[in-house]
Write a structure and sequence with these properties.
Length: about 500
């Protein structure tokens, strides 16, 4: 459903106001996606692979007209994970090098003593001749906390100018965190160092082990570089503030910076700094920040939190926020500005935003896992106020219906045609789909939703979690499940779609 419902967020009136005025509607039903009454590791890593959110009773409203189209594209599964040493449940963003090789991470590998300490980084090399098979290579298998290594990747990979890869693991490292009596570590940031010669052995290096408490715990989502080569990311927990976010993991999360060593002396360490600690719902702040942060031209940081914000009905711990961290001009503390608190019912808004937002000409775009008329997610934009004074204005540009457009979307990417691309679960096939959002041709028109591909289930993929354009405008991605592997529901795939 493509609509133009606008809402402005005001700290003094956090429930917001709708234009036109909000109305009450009859109860629509119960959306049951997943409760947090599951094993915490399975919940958290499952969320990293295919986000779902807590049980919410939602109410719905008819707010617009459906505007969808379908144009099925040609999809090819490049690799099916088999659930062994090659890994299973791929997670986060993928990366390409100059030679066209594809890199990614998986949350699990087998055999593994515990789920907290495994996972892999892999490479897929294209065939020498078009139409041939891609070659999979496991570059590294994580060893976990007991070895002082990372464990269980919870974000994808980014690449520096030299072709080295960077990512995060939710557990592992040398930190003192304990979960349900088991030492797990607090998570880590790692680097995969590219060999000097093609075909050489990649080396893994833990750049930082989180410590929990005042420091971060459980890094989540993709990292990002600034122009100076510093790394930035988010941890869902830790930071020393807020106690309303999760009953098993302390505090409400952080945004952190990792700065490379100033010298090339062997043993020189990266330096970590917590830029902001979230305070959660009780303070009217966000909690459990998502990775995939984005910078504006001034170096300020924009992102989302999955919980916190306004104390509204039927969202445990709040429905999430969009925020900005403003850089101090003299190197002082960063300052948080809350751009928007998602409202869910009864305000016909989204709930539980994803990470990896998009910032174009000052407008903030993103997706939510829940909320909307059919309780299964939205695509939204946030427009800044004139002269940076006043409230940001939210517009819902698509509301998912659990029909031909699917449900619970993942993050968006921008295509070479400047259109948005994304994935959602469910859909006509029940296995998820890839979609495109075409912007309005003129002011006042609606965005157009176009289905690009419906997954068909094993041996095809199930539930896409990461998209990226490669050479020749070909769209690549991963799915959490599906393929030919022996895992229950499949072990996941890497695929391509001809644009």
């Amino acid at each position: 459903m493509d609509i133009g419902l606008e809402r402005r967020y005001d700290r003094a009136n956090p429930r917001g106001s709708c234009l036109p005025p909000a109305r009450r509607y009859s109860r629509k039903g119960l959306f049951l996606a997943m409760t947090r009454k599951v094993m915490p590791f399975q919940y958290l890593v499952g969320l990293a692979a295919r986000p779902v959110f807590c049980t919410i009773v939602l109410f719905a409203a008819i707010v617009g007209l459906v505007s969808t189209a379908s144009a099925q594209a040609s999809e090819t599964v490049l690799y099916s994970f088999q659930g062994g040493s090659d890994g299973y449940v791929p997670v986060g963003s993928i990366a390409f090098d100059k030679a066209g090789n594809l890199y990614g991470a998986t949350t699990y590998t087998s055999p593994c003593v515990t789920s907290f300490q495994c996972g892999s980084v892999y490479e897929l090399s294209p065939p020498p001749q078009q139409g041939g098979a891609w070659t999979q290579t496991t570059l590294y298998t994580f060893q976990g906390h007991s070895k002082g290594d990372g464990g269980a990747p919870t974000g994808g990979l980014i690449q520096d100018a030299a072709g080295n890869l960077y990512g995060v693991t939710g557990y592992g490292g040398t930190g003192p965190c304990i979960l349900l009596g088991t030492p797990t570590g607090c998570g880590a940031v790692y680097e995969m160092i590219r060999p000097a010669q093609p075909g050489g052995v990649w080396k893994e290096k833990v750049l930082y082990s989180f410590l929990g408490n005042q420091d971060g715990q459980f890094p989540f989502g993709d990292l990002v570089f600034d122009k100076q080569g510093n790394l930035y990311g988010a941890t869902w927990f830790g930071g020393g503030k807020g106690d309303t976010c999760n009953s098993l993991y302390p505090y409400c999360g952080t945004i952190f910076q990792l700065s490379p060593p100033r010298t090339t002396h062997k043993g020189s360490a990266w330096t970590e700094k917590v830029l902001y600690s979230f305070q959660g719902l009780d303070a009217g702040d966000g909690g459990e920040p998502n990775g995939g942060l984005v910078f504006d031209e001034s170096g300020n940081i924009y992102g989302t939190t999955s919980v916190g914000g306004s104390n509204v009905p039927l969202c445990n711990n709040g429905c999430g926020t969009a925020f900005e961290l403003v850089r101090s001009p003299k190197g002082g503390p960063w300052t948080e500005q809350l751009l928007y608190s998602f409202l869910n019912y009864p305000d016909d808004d989204g709930a539980r935003p994803n990470g990896n937002p998009i910032l174009i000409n000052g407008t903030f775009y993103g997706t939510t896992l829940g909320g909307g008329e059919d309780e299964v997610g939205t695509v939204f934009s946030l427009t800044p106020p004139p002269q940076n004074e006043g409230a940001w204005t939210e517009t819902l540009i698509h509301v998912f219906t659990r029909g031909d457009d699917g449900a619970s979307p993942s993050a968006l990417i921008v295509g070479p045609d400047r259109k948005f691309y994304g994935s959602s679960g469910s859909g006509p096939s029940r296995y998820g789909l890839i979609y495109r959002m075409d912007p309005p041709k003129q002011k006042g028109d609606a965005w157009k939703f176009v289905t690009a591909y419906n997954f068909t289930g094993p041996p095809d993929g199930v539930y896409a979690v990461a998209l990226k354009f490669g050479k020749n405008n070909t769209l690549y991605g991963t799915t959490s499940y599906g393929g030919t592997g022996s895992c229950n529901g499949g072990c996941g795939t890497v695929f391509e779609i001809a644009h």
